[in-house]
Design a protein that fits this description.
alpha/beta; nine-stranded mixed sheet; four-stranded mixed sheet; 15 helices; about 40% helix; Carb_kinase_PfkB-like; Carbohydrate kinase PfkB domain-containing protein; kinase
Length: about 375
């Protein structure tokens, strides 16, 4: 991947302190550290970009730079410049758990020795995320451009070509020792690393949460996904309604309820998020539907599902009921769509705590958001 091989001694040096201190409760596997470039754009710009609107399609570095150039050329609004921050679905969820919910969280992956890599590290560190399992490598850090239209919908073009990543053989049981949850996002490019992480995490007794990533990923790589689910190793699965529809494409009944039923055959918790219509979830024999919280019009939908996962996981960790888990998820998912990008601002965390109080939900006892706001 354009990076120098990572020696065993370097890995051991980075991981020597895993056992000497408290392991994070939740770990996220994000093989590629990723930096998001988020901007609001109009339809005329979106029409120039190949691929379906609203989805996520990988691009090469030339195309990424071309899109970034177009965005800068089209940007006349000084009040909404491009926002650059640590990104990636798993990073968003982990950062939310740490900064908003005070749940000790860490990330497993690799970042490059470039400006983007340092930005990723600084952003995650300022939000209290444990980066002792994040390997530094020579090479480029992955980037993604997130284009947000006037309806708040986002079109993503990630660039992973030439980016450094953690390899399956670099993972060790020490990475997972002492943690309780592993958060994953389905990606065919990372399948080998995902399988290695699941194998080691299960040996250490971790529960595993899987996000289905995008409707394109489910559509194009359904068989490996089904194998992953059928393995019985996935304890909690999140899908949005588009991913759920792809999962059951061709079935007689392919609605969101059928998708929750399907996922619950393999997972203890199955959740399908429905955007402004809330979510449907199943745990054991209990199925629940919960409406969304907050404004119906999103400023930017980036990170809505990721932050929903933060809230839902917080609920599960704290032993809340299925309905309460969904409501906390709705509060946290609603908090991130109030501003641009997948990171919740301090003001929007305060909004979320207020929503949780109104609904009689237990708020985090320590307001870590105050500690880590930066």
């Amino acid at each position: 991947m354009g990076a120098e091989p990572f020696s065993q001694s370097q890995i051991q040096n980075q991981n020597h302190n895993h056992n000497s201190r408290h392991a994070p409760l939740v770990l996220g596997l994000q093989p590629f550290a990723l930096v998001d470039n988020v901007a609001t754009v109009d339809w005329s710009l979106l029409r120039q970009i190949s691929g379906e609107r609203g989805g996520s399609v990988p691009v090469g570095i030339e195309e990424l730079n071309g899109i970034l150039g177009e965005v800068k050329a089209h940007s006349h609004d000084a009040h909404s410049p491009m926002k650059t921050l640590a990104g990636g679905s798993v990073a968003n969820t982990i950062r939310g758990l740490s900064s908003g919910f005070g749940i000790s969280s860490g990330i497993v992956g690799a970042y490059g020795d470039d400006e983007q890599g340092q930005l990723f590290v600084d952003n995650m560190t300022s939000n209290g995320v444990d980066l002792s399992r994040l390997r530094k490598k020579q090479g480029h850090t992955a980037q993604c451009v997130c284009l947000v239209d006037e309806s708040g919908n986002r079109t993503m073009r990630p660039c992973l070509s030439n980016a450094v990543k953690v390899q399956a053989q670099e993972l060790m049981k020490e990475d997972f020792m002492g943690s309780k949850w592993l958060v994953l996002r389905y990606a065919i490019l990372n399948l080998e690393v995902i399988q290695a992480a699941i194998h080691l995490a299960k040996q250490e007794g971790l529960l595993i949460s899987l996000d289905l990533a995008s409707f394109e990923m489910v559509r194009n790589f359904k068989l490996p996904l089904l194998k992953l689910l059928e393995s019985g190793n996935i304890d909690l699965c999140f899908a949005n309604e588009d991913e759920a529809a792809e999962l059951l494409r061709g079935e007689q009944n392919a609605d969101s309820i059928a998708a929750v039923e399907f996922l619950s055959k393999y997972c203890q918790w199955a959740v399908v998020t429905l955007g402004s219509n809330g979510c449907i979830a199943k745990h054991g024999k209990e199925m629940i539907r919960v409406p969304a919280i907050g404004e119906t019009k999103a400023c930017d939908a980036t990170g809505a599902g990721d932050l929903f996962a933060s809230g839902f996981l917080y609920g599960v960790i704290k032993g809340l009921s299925l309905e309460e888990c969904c409501k906390v998820g709705a509060c946290s998912g609603g908090s991130v769509i109030r501003s641009l990008g997948g990171e919740v601002t301090l003001e929007n965390w305060q909004w979320m705590y207020k929503q949780m109080q109104i609904k009689g939900l237990p708020t985090p006892t320590q307001m870590h958001a105050n500690e880590y706001s930066g």
